[in-house]
Amino acid sequence: MSRNAVNYCVKCSGRINSDPLICGSGCGHVSHAKCSSLSEQQLKIIQVTPNISWRCDSCLHQASIKLELYLKQHEKRLEILEQSLASRKCGKLNESCKEPVMCPFLPSTIASRAVFVTAAFAILTIGLLVILATTTNLFSKTLNKSKLGDGDDSRQNIPINSTIDQDNIGGGLVLRFVPRAVWLAQPPLKQLPLSLPVPMVVVLPTNSENCSTQAQCVFRVRFLQTFDIESQQKDDITFNFLIGGDGNVYVGRGWDVVGAHVHGYNMASLGIAYIGSFRHQEPSAKQLTVTRLLLEHGVNHGKIASNYKLVGASTLEPTITEYNAELLYKSLANWTHWTIVP
């Protein structure tokens, strides 16, 4: 699916500019999130939980028709069985009975069929109850999972009085990486080693919708990688790192692999992308604070040269409109390493 593909909501027939809800039944229908009748929590679960997807009304209706048809067929078979039982005599001990009854003198074939149908119906009912209980439990665990136990943070032995739940929600006060395994990255097709330390760091926008929670940002990053690999025929997600509005740093290609952010400059630079479009909106304070921490970390660990240049992608390729992010570059213009000359 191209970023510029035109989709129309199956509910309101309005145009969907980005991030449509796609029917999981494969019918091709899409919908606005606001038109889906799902709560905000349910939408978040669909974004981050594998094998759970939205279904359009048409597919749900078809499923209900199939279920109703199956039940009618089952009732018809039971009716035929009852008529067959009623037409037979119950044996010498029950010659006067006119209503069909289950008795030991029924022919063995009919008795076996009756037992089989009853057992099959009971097993089907139990199976549906198990599926319902499992789904309800999954939703409950997802909604109530603790931030300290979701496996997304690399720090061990967190004290009880820790402020980890406020670190990035409250302002991006720590450098927190979200590794590839956590945002469920596809494996790269191939990798080229990057010569370190790099003398240049290139910043640019993703030109997607922004995000303010980890669930939203994970969805954006996964979508970007899928687009880069399947539509742009790239080896992996374009960027070395992505900074979300939640104040987290999402690991793209990482420190040691050549990116694909700006043609002609990839072999000697790191590409840091900001999730969002910044022509009319400034990056959040969290994103800027974490950017400083990320650059300091890179210098301290020998990944970035101490005299590095920080440059906007539009400076290197001014003719490419996708690199335009005036308010992003303006927010970095007074930083020590910022330069408009590559």
Q: Overview of this structure, please?
A:
- By secondary structure, the chain is α/β, with parallel strands linked by helices.
- It has three domains: 7-55, Herpes Virus-1 (2-Layer Sandwich), CATH 3.30.40.10; 63-144, no CATH class; 167-332, Lysozyme-like (3-Layer(aba) Sandwich), CATH 3.40.80.
- 37% of the residues lie in helices and 11% in strands.
- The chain has helices spanning 40-48, 57-86, 108-144, 164-167, 214-231, 285-300, 313-316, 326-332; strands spanning 7-8, 15-16, 21-22, 30-31, 177-178, 198-205, 241-243, 249-251, 269-274, 304-312.
- The strands form three sheets. Strands 5-8-7-9-6-10 form a six-stranded mixed β-sheet. It has a two-stranded antiparallel ribbon with strand order 1-2.
- 27% of the residues are buried.
- Residues 97-101, 145-158 and 162-167 have low confidence and may be disordered.
- One of its GO terms (molecular function) is zinc ion binding.
- The chain crosses the membrane at residues 114-139.
- It comes from Drosophila hydei (Fruit fly).
